[in-house]
Specification:
The chain is mainly alpha-helical. It has a domain of 37 residues. The chain has a two-stranded antiparallel sheet. It is elongated and about 90 Å long.
């Protein structure tokens, strides 16, 4: 049977405490980051007016009668 160590070295204790503090800070920040959208009130805004989305030109050439434009460079 092995005897128990008399004491934990101070260096290991301080490193363990440091790691626990860093991991706790990371956990808190991640939680705040995930909960942020639930508490931030944002208003949605629609665009004003009607936007024309019809394709008129491809590479400077007009499109007409549904004929595909072949662009060769």
């Amino acid at each position: 049977m092995r005897p128990y160590p008399k004491a934990i070295p101070i260096k290991e204790m301080s490193m363990d405490r440091y790691i626990k503090i860093i991991l706790t800070i990371i956990a808190v920040l991640l939680t705040l980051h995930l909960l942020g959208p639930f508490f931030a009130a944002r208003t949605a805004k629609a665009g004003s007016g009607i936007m024309d989305v019809n394709i008129v030109k491809v590479d400077g050439r007009y499109i007409s009668r549904g004929i595909p434009v072949i662009v060769i460079k």
